[in-house]
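Reply to dn_fold:

You asked what the input looked like. This is it:
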Amino acid sequence: MRITNLKLTPVAVPDPPLRNSWGVHAPYALRIILELETDEGVTGLSEANGGAALLGELVAAGKAAEGETPWHLERLRVKLRGLPRAWSALEVACLDACARSIGRPVYDLLGGLVRPRVPFASYLFYKYEGENDRWGDVNTPEAMVGEARRFREEYGFTTHKLKGGVLPPDEEVETMRLLREAFPHDRLRIDPNAIWSVETSIRVAKALEPLDIEYLEDPTHGLAGMAAVARQTHIPLSTNMVVNDMADLPMAVEMRAVQVILCDHHYWGGLTGCKRLASVCESFHLGLSMHSNNHLGITLAAMVHLAATTPHLIYACDTHYPWQEEDVIVGGKLRFEDGSLTPPAGPGLGVELDRDQLAKLHENFQRMATRNRDDSAEMLKRDPYYLPFRPRW
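and this is what came back:
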């Protein structure tokens, strides 16, 4: 089986105005759908995180992959070593094609199932009310408890992650306190995206310690800052910002800056790259969790196959998926049960493209004036005096 073509379709998916330390999400989340075509008529699917800026890299990767076999992943990985994000997307499509060609699920190519169901966490955002937005305005601690309760009732999540760095730190501590009061037996985590100073991070960590939170993600900037905070709290610190490739790990371990790494197959070299990361984390007694972005069902399926085959991934995975109202897969969105998912049934990733939905979301992309997401620019439309900088607190 040989690769003959890589078909790329950029899409724009409606996204509510979710707030973070950079600003607020634009009206559309940008993704690129990959179809890896082969000479045996088997097509592998994948999904890349990005807009127009990533298209050129993916086009180059597709040309480099033509004539290669999707089974020889290491050869392809070396060949595309200068295109790391493109390689991550291409690798998933290769695995999907290979698994489809033998009628097996992708998880069989990753070592087989170690857990039949994969738990996920609700992803709680402070937010503005958007057009046709069923969630409404959420900009107070009390409103956030209502959002979390709705996530729990609709999807069954018993782990909750707050996207912090939006309100003043004391208000976010109060949010966590109210969440603990409302859900005394659930797991809690918070991620301010490195917006706090070291001093503020330590003060907040001390205030959070009685709440028994699962981990504090990227409270401050850089390995040195994270190490300074880690020395002052017993709460585990997690990251997807200061450790995002293998080269970052030695110094992170030496400085004891983080205790939990968040993998993401879009950035860690695909599904096999995340498996390598899991082995390293196990060797150095680091925890492993899973990062999320505004993904669709193809990425979610890949995340489930990966998590279901990785023993060391013991934390509930992050996911933005409930915030997305539309998808590109046949049958509509994947459905959470009791806060978890099973790998979709069928060969490969277990999902197929809905051509009508793909065309609709591609039309959204074509109509956009700006084809790369910019949370700071979007926030400036709401508040002309908004100044994103680090640290804000």
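The longest strand covers residues 3-14.
Hope that clears it up.
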